[in-house]
Fold:
Amino acid sequence: MYECRKVIQSPIFLGLFLLFSVYNIYLIVSSSDHKEELKIVNELIDTYGRDISDTSLAQLDQDIQQEMTQLKRSAGLEFQSVHELLENMSLEEQEAYSQEHWNQIQQLAVKEMYFNTARSIDESYAGIDIQATGEGEVRMYGLSGSSASYLLQEYEKLDKRFEELVKNGEQKQWFFAGKAYFMHSFLFQTVFRHIIIESLLLIVLATALITAYEFEQKTQLLTFSTKRGRKLMKDKFSASIAIAVATMILLLGITLGTFFIVFDYSHVWSTSISSAFNWEYNFPYIAWWDISVGTFLWLAAGMVLAGGLLMSCLTFALATVVKNSYIAFAGIALFFVAVLLLPSFMSKSSILFFITGYNLSQLLLGISNSFMGGGLTGSRNYEWLTVSCWTLIAAGICFAAYRRFTKTDIG
Amino acid sequence: MLVVKEVSKQYGDFTALRDIQLEFETGLYGLLAPNGAGKTTLIKMLATLLYPTKGEVLYNGNNIIDMDSSYRELLGYLPQQFGYYKNYSPKQYLLYLSALKGISKKEALPKIIELLDKVALGDVVNKKMKKFSGGMVQRVGIAQALLNDPKILILDEPTAGLDPKERARFRNLLTDLARSRLVIVSTHIVSDIESIANEIIMIKNQQILYKDSVETICGTLDGAVFETSMEFEQLESFRQDHVLLSEKQEYGKMIVRFIHKETPLVDWLPVQPQLEDVFLYEYRDETNGTVQ
Structure:
């Protein structure tokens, strides 16, 4: 507790934590203009169930037609689809509608969009050629030799998983329309990336501060000559881990708490993360396992926690050796960037191009694509192998740094 | 009790201490040498902060490095220079150090109040230390060294920053403490320990020069310390030929105290050697004067 207090009482740490929390809340609230439209998915799930079937789609179509008829009658309009109505509507015409009618039109437009997307899922997925995508990636990155073979093998495995996914119907579950709202990217790329960078800054700062504290305050001669002696570094390690966990939990809690208060995910937790509605860019999200949005969120939070703890361990090891928080902070920042760029220095014909991609920086910054196939870090084993390898590396480095410290003179 | 056995300490090519052999029992030992002679290096080895390059330090026959925390729980140590947490009060700071010394909060609190009273800081127990003078911080340092009622108390330049009144109080405190424990005081100020140390240890050329009582050490200059008076104009040539211990002006003449080991002149007044005379003689600058 005494060691934790050194960080808790640090104005820089507290100030940064507060600043990051407020910024994250602002980021979420300022991007929430479409939050009401998202609720339509909850209504769809309530009315038609999570899974999209021919029967539920027919029912939805019928209901949309009914609503359109009512709207045509009450507003005195004539149109074939809401999409067509909105496309041909001038600003003056728009202003002529009552707020109630306008809300009805908008709701109907969103429903129609969901219906059309759902209706075209089979066709869209039938057009996906996983192998051809893999070959395209090989060409795009200029891969050859063993690295090209490796990537093509991965796409072969992904092809089988894709077939299984389609067979299971994982793609046919309601979720927020990816191409319209990009909610997966917003949550797991924008918001999570903010949380990750901020957590890492705070964790590295806190760990370096705790570890090098005695040397920077010049109290090392007093503290390390007490009964606890050099074992004090063990307490500092435990305190760093405790602060890292608390920081991440609080930052995740505040940020995600705000996110889910603003955006109502209550009905989509069990929807598959591989839902066709989650498709945002050129390639749909194809998870290696049938995992729900809720499970994916827990896994992503778990990876942030694991990554943060590993970075804390590495910072502890470096700060133990250099005994200076500024150097340790700069060293870890440099390390983070260096390992991120490392694959780009590898030969594109060598398997090292992929092996060096199994690093903490890529794992954390690419969290939105975690557990998904495709891309350079899309291997089925990428996440657990990266975390396991770096756990071993961090444990080894920490142990070596501590052993070295116990045998080093303290001047 | 505490034995320094053939200990050497090297920093790369530089030898700080060479083949140091010492034995300590209960009592007060003064470690006397000029700055840079290796006192702090020796003390840091006794505090397990530095490891000997050669040799070992034994406590009751056991290597203190192997004893680890069971040795350090017997130790009270005041470094020559030490930092503190500026936003902590002495009470908070001593509570933290008590925890590191394995003392429970319940046990530590009354002890902290007692010790802060003893070093005359009883009225600033809860004041932030960033407002403290150098002397006050030094007294907090002395209090922390006594927290665990140590069997071995090692103080490195403990009187730095203390005023004459505080020094006198501190000397009394040391005399009390040394009755039941081993106290090692490192200093380059002779008056700090001359009157209270059971034995004086002097280090020269990285080795032990003396480890003896004040009387015995002073006895090495018996019949060699003199005082005489002269005109100011004669002083420069006198300096060239003798090792001067002190000079003072009195009634328009210079009174000088010096070492002379040959037959003295009739008007020279032989005086009783003091520890300071030995210190000045042994650590004299070789270019200044010669002993005759």
About this structure: The mean pLDDT of chain A is 91. Chain A has two domains: 2-33+176-406, 52-127.
